[in-house]
Every structure is written in structure tokens, then in C-alpha cells.
Amino acid sequence: MIFRVALLMMLVLMATTSTATSNNKQQTYIVHMDKAKIASTDNSRKWYEAVIGSIIDPSAQNEDSASSPQLLYVYETTTGFAAKLSRKQLESLRQLNGFLSATPDEMLKLHTTHSPQFLGLERGKGLWNSKNLELDVIIGVVDSGIWPEHDTFKDSSMSPVPSRWKGICEEGTNFTASNCNRRLIGARAYYKGYEAAGRRINETEDYKSARDVQGHGTHISSIAAGSVVKNASFLGLAKGSASGIRYTSRIAAYKVCWLCGCAGSDILAAMDQAILDGVDVLSLSLGSYDKPYYRDNIAIGAFHAIRNGIFVSCSAGNSGPYSSSVSNTAPWVTTVAASYLDRSFLATVKFGNRQTFKGSSLYTGKSTMQLPIAYGKSAGYEDAEYCYEGSLNRTLVKGKIVLCELGNFSRAELADNVKQAGGDGMIVLNDGKDGEELIAEAYLLPAIAVGATAGKAIKKYISSNKKATASIAFYGTVYGNCASSMAAFSARGPSEIGPEVVKPDITAPGVNILAAWPPSISPTYANSDKRSVPFNIVSGTSMSCPHVSGIAALIKSVHTNWSPAAIKSALMTTAYTLDNTKNPMLDVATLSSATPFAFGSGHVNPEIASNPGLIYNITEVDYLNHLCSLGYTSDQVTLFTGSSSHFSCPSTRTPLGDLNYPSFAVNFKGNVQNNTATFKRTVTNVGVPRSRYTVKVQEPKDAIVTVKPTVLNFKKLGEELSYAVNFVGRRGKTSRGLSNSFGALLWVSGKYTVRSPIAVSWS
After folding, report:
1. Buried b or exposed e, range 181-219, using 16+ CB within 10 angstroms
2. Average pLDDT for residues 485-509, to the nearest whole number?
């Protein structure tokens, strides 16, 4: 199962936004203010209430109180508020001294027995040694809530809650303060923005509290910081001891996602509160489309988090493999892509012509006999090839294996449609976009998902044989597969908003991940699925993100004084790009080598990241100077500082390429011969006091790379040394169709290899 948003939900959102544009119709706006220009007060809520009360809308004077402005949230760290306003009320607000911006609220979408071992984490060793795990690290999860009674959130043997923690366990529907413990130390729910958008919470379907009814937040939280649970499995599959990546961390759950999505105003309120509560890591497995940072409330909230020393990881999105589909691309956010483990759930389909194809399935019943195949017109009505609800004819599919092409619905939904129509089995064919993706689903009938190559061969067989037959066999959990490879669904760079930085930053396990699941929710969400499971297997960048959140918590335990940028640098520069067969990581969408626009710097490598040798640090001022170089106005920059008195752009702008990022995004124009660009970087020695690093360059095609100096000699820990990289783009007749090429820059000293990817793009 991949967490996606139904097209219908987005259409409803668009309709809501469109309707709200009339002068008197209210909608929710997220308003940011300049702290330097508003009255100093100990109670900002009262001040904003007074501001809201002073807004005049002449056209609404004779209407009822429903037309009055409504204050939803006050944001303390990001300085501002969310309110329901008409267009005329907003125009009045714009006249207020200190007003910076107002953006319409939006609805965002929700984008392990084996993964810790796959990542090289071992009990009692390295990052998982007892001394490291004793330190208190608090991970805040902004998601769909949590199921607090799950075994993975028990607090046995945990020390008392640290005194620095300022959060609470907020009571609500079917959730009391006693649901929190020494592991789950905080829980809150945010729904004012969601309800202000006209989506009332039906408490027979959802809880107006931090309790999770979608499973997503529970799954995410357990990946990052769930305790060790022995004999975990999904109906006997993937059996073993399940644990979170940093399984001794505290968890704070902030519920912002409801059955129809996650309101941006609610998300920002949760991030704002998490900063005040005292989390160390923020994990957000949700997002929207890529947009300018000054209009991106996750980017704004994340900036205020890193200002407070909080590491922020976000999912890259599930809109791959399309180019420039990546979201959450702000440079201060760690953007996480998704890749495969070496574990699969093997199934095979054998046809009447004796051809056999491998696929994936979580079905745990018996294999099928050789059965007739129904497909397209032989299965039903219009769109029967996609197995949409109502498209299958019971008479035509009864007792047969139905062939379904993957369209706009999940594989599990298609299987439910086939089962309801009376089919005895299902084969799901990937389209060209999904390539050789093999997502395992918890089917209610014998079913298998196969890749696009197998799909073409299967269609050819069926078209040439009117009495085509097939049988499906299931082999359970299989280890030792080629890994890692990039998931087709994982969103891709380059970022259209911030092409100056390679995004995503890194990849982590995100396919077929076993983690905790609420017992009240079926593993497929299907109405006909009455199964209750304590663990479920799910796929998405939503699952890869908390892996990195947990790893960041581990590294924060080792290096308590490192900045979020230093931790991010360590993760990126130690990542690997070869699979376990020592070949370049594959992109399953194309079966070609994956690139930095798919995996960023590569696959996260926790133990090596804890001792990276060198780091690329970035300060708050560095990020602000970068915003200035992007041409942001004073008001737009103040969205990130909170006050115009804290920072102003320098008269001389820093070159865009000089942000001290651990990767290089080189953007050349068109077919101009000998384009040049020079980037500067500074590295800090965190490895061996006296050390000598020599540069090695893997040049991108049609680019010449020169580094000065070629050797860095460090005399002590903490010493900073700088270097410059000159890029020359040479485009001849053979490369005119080339839009991107890739390479790497490495600093090598003994056991240390500090690697930065290079992505050269010709616009």
C-alpha cells in the first residue's frame, strides 16, 4: 500500500478554494507579522484577538456573527496567526503596520523487523550501544496521530520524562492523559484549520484527539522510535523483532491529518508548538507541491525549528518517477527519497504457455490452480481492464483470474473489486510509469503484482490465446535480494523552485516496511476487510522519512553539540550509491542507473555517518543570505527571522552556488559553449586532529571540474578550511540532447571518504 491522495479530494479542495475568492466569502489565511513592528506584550493571543476585532468589513456589518473574523491559531515562533477572513477583511488587515504576508490555507497530503539490520545497526554496538541510547532525544511526529496502547509504545525500563520537556498529553475523544507514558510523552490534536475549510470531523469515523484512525501516524512513529517487540510480523510474513531506529527515544505525537487531508494552518500550529515543547527532531511524512519558500508553511516552520537546533526531516513525496516532482525542498530541510530493502514477498504467476514471472504479494492463503484469465472486454464493461468498481461482470469473471492494469486506484482496491465481482484471483500489471515496481499488498484473494516488462509479455500471450490460463503461487518472505534500488513512486528532482540545491537529499528504506498498526483499522482499508493486525506492511516516502528521523536522533546522541546542518552533512557525505552487488543503484522505473535526482547523495549509512571525517556546516545567517541571493524582499526574509530588526540583506549578495551545501547543483544555460561556474565550500574537521585530505573528482559528462586547492591539511579538530570548485560546461554536437549529467567530488583521508554529488543541468 502506498499512501496517495485521491484525485477527488484535490478537486474538492480546488473547488473550495475557488468558491472562497468572492469578497464576502470567508476562508482561512495564514498571516505572518513582523515582530519588530507589533506591540510588545506578554500575551500575544490577546493582542491578535484585538487586531482581529478591529478589522472592519462594511459589507458584513448587518450580517450575523458567522461573518466576523475568526482567530484559529496564534504562532509564537513563526510570529503570526491563522484566521478565517473575507477578502475585504484581509484588505483591512493588510493596512496594519507589521503585516508581512497572508497565504490561503491549503490541504496537504500524507505522502520494522528488518530495516535496522539492513541499515547496519546492531544491538550493543556502534550507534546502538547502551551509553548512546541512554541519552534523552525527543522525536516530534507531525502526522495522523498515534495508537498509544500498542506494544511498541510501551515504556518499560525507560527513565523519567526529562525536566526540560514542556509538552502535554492533551485529552480528547477516547484519549486521556493516562495514555501517555515515559515513551509517548506528548500528544496533541490540531483541527481548527481543517474544520474551517468546511470539513467537519465525524466523531463516529474519527477521534477529535491524538488517537489515530488512519494508521499512518502510528506506523511512522514506530519506525522512528518504537520499542523492541519480539515475534512481530504481518500475518506471519516478515517475522522477527521489530524496533524503531532510535528505539529509546521519546515520542511526541501531533495529529494534524484527518480523513480528508491535513490543513497547512494546523501543520504550522503543530510545528510551532513542537518547538516550544522542546523536541529535538521533527519528522513530517506529508507535503504539498513545490512552491517558493516564502509561501511554503512547512519551510517556514522548519526554518524556525532549525534556528532552535531541531533537525527536520520531510518525505520527498510519492509523485515519481516524474521529473521535478519532489516536494519539501527548502535547503534547511532534509528531504528523504524511498528505496528498497533486500527483503521481498515473492509470488509467481505461471501461464498456460509455461512462461513464469516473478511478482510481489502479501497474500497468505493457498496458491491457485490453473484458471482461465479474464481481461478487458472478456471481464466486463468499459474500463474493465482497470478493474474499477462496477466495471466487472460477475458472469464473466466468476471462477477466473482477472487481469487488472494499474490506474488511479491502489492494488488492494482493485483486488477488493475483483473479489466482490466473484473473481478467484488477480494479476496487477504496472504501467510504463511504474516500471518494475513491486509493491506488496495485503490482498483478500490470491493476487500478484508484476512489473511492466512482464505485463507486456502477459498481454501478448492473452491476445494470441483465447483460452489463456494462469496459476499464482506464493513463497512468503525472501531475503538477499539486490538492494538498494530506487522506488518508482519516489519523487524526483530537480526542484523547479530551488534548482541551486540537489533534491532530494538522501534515500532510505521506504518499500514494504513493517511497522505498528492500530488494531481497529484493516490493513487495506477495504470495507470488506475485517482483519485486525498489530503490524502492517506499507510503502512510501512517508516510511523512509522516519528512518532518517531516527538516524538523526542517533547521531544527535553521539554529537550533542552538532547543528542540524552538521547532522545532515554527515548523513549526505557518507551515503553510498552502489547496491549490495557493488553495482550502481538501479531505478526500478527504468531499470537504468539511478541518479542524484532520484537518491540525492545516496543511501543513508548510519554507522559511517556517525564519524564522517568532515562536515559542511551552515548557519542561520548563511541560509538567510541565500534567501537574499534568491531575490527575496525584506518582508519575505522577515517571514523566516520573525522580526525585521534581526536581519537585513547585505548590499553584496552571496553567489547562489556558495551556500555551504554538501552537494553541487550546477545550472548552465542552453547550448552555450564553455559555460563556467565557480562554487566555494568550507569543511570542518571532525575526524582526526592532524589529517590530510586529497581531492578526487568523478567528472560529469561534458563538464570539466577543477578544484583548488587539491589537498587540505588539518592540524586540529574543529578547524575549518575552504576550497573552490570551477565547472566548465562543454557541449559539443554529441551532447546537444543532454539535459543533465552527474558526477561526484570526494575528499579522501585514510578511512574517510567525504563524498558530494555533482548534478550539472543545461536548461
Report:
1. bebbbbbbbbbbbbbbbebebeeeebbbbbbbbbbbbbb
2. 96
